[in-house]
Amino acid sequence: MDSFDETIARKQRSEAVLRAAGVSINPHLPLIESEGEIFVRSPREVAERLLALNIVAVKGEGLEQEIIERIVEERGIRPLFSPLELVFIDDPDPSEHDRLQFVWRYEAAWVLFWSLNFVQGPLGLPSHLCDVPMLTETVRDSANLTANGTRSARELLDEADLIYRCAWAIRQAGLDRVTPVGSLAPGVTMERHYALNWLIDPDGSDWDDVDTST
């Protein structure tokens, strides 16, 4: 379990990374939770959520409804979708807006993919899109998505702290009507923030109810 000093050090490390990348920081943003204050999802729960996110993103990208329905039926994954995801999955002709919104779920899925140890090293700054082919092929072909276990609470908190401060920079740039300084990708930032908050949510919130306020 990390100490208060470690929580402060985590904030300082994140701010140093952002400064080095030329990203604006807010030194008054509070500390995030410590290890003793979070609820870490089980490997099975993470794997099931990863599978659901992958399917909605694939549909958003344009995979035919008939194929989506067959995959959902054959793999028995209908219970894994959130209420909002089910509306999208069952819609034979979703709007382009809805498709685009769910395509972005690849970036949230990548965070869960990383947390299940399919990606080496830290996530780092949200400055580029994830490797979608690697993600989708591994999820499709893996017999056991939980085989590698999950990242430690400390690793999850390190990434959650960094993305929290990235999200503030993105939102503040929007309020100021300026282009975000640095290389942050807004869409990637938003999805990573959502997924990381879900992974460590102290309340164990359902997917549709995750809080990403800054």
Structural account:
The protein is built from 9 helices and no strands. With 214 residues, the chain is mainly α. The protein has 2 domains: 95 residues, no CATH class; 99 residues, no CATH class. Helix 1 crosses helix 8 and helix 6 crosses helix 9. 35% of the residues are buried. The mean pLDDT is 95.
The total count of strands amounts to: 0
The N- and C-terminal alpha carbons lie at a distance of 24 Å
- Average predicted local confidence, pLDDT: 95
Kindly state the percentage of residues in helix: 55-70%
Residue stretches low in confidence (pLDDT < 50, at least 5 long) are: none
Number of structurally distinct domains: 2
Major beta sheet, specifics? none
Helical segment count: 9
Binned strand content:
under 5%
What is the general shape? globular
Rg, alpha carbons: 17 Å
What pattern of helices and strands is seen along the backbone? Answer: HHHHHHHHH
Structural class, please? mainly alpha
